[in-house]
């Protein structure tokens, strides 16, 4: 099966906790603070591996949690940073945030990296909190939590050439005779439901990747049937081979077919009509084909060159493939996203971080504090030490939490909740 879109969970490693420790040396009565910092948690990094062609590997592994940083130790020893977790993706992988649907990165070149979930920084050990007034603090920070999120990886087929046309015109048959691909071929319409890829080599040693596509029908661009999805697969191709059936068995006029498909491409509006198009008249082995071709060419005019072939008897293929290879030599690339997004291949968007805090009430009347900043502060507090707790209280005050609670009507002794922590509001 061809997997081209997958949702995965990534989490950067948490930072290691800072340590509260003191020097214990003989003959040194009041050993100073000696708690080391925690190490940095590992980042989760996506990295392009050119050998990969699909997102197949992600079918079985969808959770990526990087290691946490080592905790700080006594004797001022810092915990070790954790090494980044590298997740390999094929070239052409577009990374989206599942929540915001924002495109985070468009990964195309071998070795290109994108940090998709940052590891947390290590918490500071008590050594770092020493001041002249408080030379032996019992304060240490826990590590910062690693960033976590769901992302969607999407792989556009990286074919150079895409075959389009009505159902059953012979697109898959053509792909099967010019490459080693083994697509399903049958008389009924919509035999192909996902694109197949094949590497084509011309007699003079040039090569390119060709994809057959599910048949297009009128209204495909409006999401009728599966058409819309299909068109997505040719957004990145540089040359389009438009296959027209000259067999006449289905009772349609080849020229009408040709016009209809071009309308579809135009309506879809991904600059598909700007690509070089090579028109192929297939099924030239059929009895009425010569006649149909003559009238097709007449309606088409002299400006459009037509390549008559028979995928079945394999005639006319050599000229066609040469023409495709020639075209590819100067066909421009068609990047997927609008100009501003492609200036930089990796788009680092500023994370919209929720600032500050919110106050709500629980049914029992308790005040509930929430918000990214305040919650982070909470998890980075080491509640085993009285002094750390006091520091936490000071930080809350600094953020304006006390004042905001007072404004909401909190009085001495009222219950305040923050994550799993409860405390009393003290005036
Ligand atoms: N006579 C003749 N039949 C052909 C030729 N090429 C394909 N066919 C037949 O046409 C039918 C459809 O071929 P496919 O290759 O499956 O067509 P397709 O365009 O991929 O069709 P969908 O995937 O359904 O859109 C099959 O029965 C093929 O054997 C040809 O050159 N000559
Ligand atoms: Mg097919």
Give Rg in angstroms: 32 Å
Strand content: 15-25%
Mean pLDDT: 86
Broad shape? elongated
Number of helical segments with 4 or more residues: 9
Helix content: 10-25%
Order of helices and strands: EEEEEEEEEHEEHEHEHEHHEEHHHEE
CATH architecture of the largest domain: 3-Layer(aba) Sandwich
Distance between the termini: 65 Å
**Going across the major beta sheet, what is the strand order?**
10-11-9-12-13-14
The major pleated sheet works out as: 6 strands, mixed
CATH domain topology of the largest domain: Rossmann fold
Task: State the low-pLDDT regions, or none.
Answer: 337-349
Number of domains: 3
Extended strand count:
18
Q: What name goes with the CATH superfamily of the largest domain?
A: P-loop containing nucleotide triphosphate hydrolases
Which class best fits the helix and strand makeup?
A: alpha/beta
Bound molecules: guanosine-5'-triphosphate, magnesium ion
* CATH level 1 name of the largest domain: Alpha Beta
Task: Report on this structure.
This protein has 427 residues and is α/β, with parallel strands linked by helices. It has 3 domains: 1-156, GTP1/OBG domain (Spo0b-associated Gtp-binding Protein, Chain: A), CATH 2.70.210; 161-330, Rossmann fold (3-Layer(aba) Sandwich), CATH 3.40.50.300; 358-424, GTP-binding protein OBG, C-terminal domain (GMP Synthetase, Chain A, domain 3). The chain has 9 helices and 18 strands. The chain has helices at 171-178, 227-232, 254-268, 289-300, 317-330, 339-343, 372-379, 386-399, 401-407; strands at residues 5-11, 44-48, 63-65, 85-89, 93-97, 103-107, 113-117, 148-155, 161-165, 196-201, 207-212, 239-245, 276-282, 306-308, 358-361, 367-370, 415-418, 421-424. The protein has a 6-stranded mixed sheet with strand order 10-11-9-12-13-14, sandwiched between helices. Strands 3-1-8-5-6 form a 5-stranded mixed sheet, with no helix packed on it. Strands 15-16-17-18 form a 4-stranded mixed sheet. Strand 15 and strand 16 (367-370) form a beta hairpin. It is elongated. The protein starts with a strand and ends with a strand. It binds guanosine-5'-triphosphate and magnesium ion. Residues 171-172, 183, 191-192, 212 line the site of magnesium ion.
